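User: Can you predict the 3D structure for this chain?
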Amino acid sequence: MNAYMTNGTIDFLLKLEEKHKDIDFYFMTSNSGALAYYEGNGKSIFNAGRDYDILLEKGAISEDGYVVMNNIPVVEDGQATFEKRFMQGENNIDMMPGFQAYRFLKPLKGNTYVVFTQWRSAQDFENWKNSEHFKQSHKGQSTKPPAYYADKPFTTAYHMFDKDNA
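Assistant: Here is the predicted structure, written as structure tokens:
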């Protein structure tokens, strides 16, 4: 299964739904713009998008909530080590209050992996970040980035777009 996403204005992205009625899109907005996301098999419908292989998934993405994406550039010869760390890690994130969905996404082009989490609210995400569970799942990580990082990771956050109240 693959994940596909692209950025643009919300007005432009919403038109995709009219053209592709067979696709379940998720629309998200932030201070810097909007994002359309969907999952499926085959070729992406986006001209200028990003395509990913879903390596790990938990939960179902909801049309309501708060999404945080950790974007992690990984050098080519470090990808196997990086993936193994995520695939074997103790990840009980789905037990946290407010958790909705998790996706570990490997880029089909480029080197930036995405760790996608969706929460009922931004407060639920903050509660998880401040939890003992978060500390346990991130223990052993030094302040120095691993050698397999190609660049500094960055985070993007979105609120799911409510089409009914637009």
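The CA atoms of residues 119 and 140 lie 25 Å apart. The mean pLDDT is 91.
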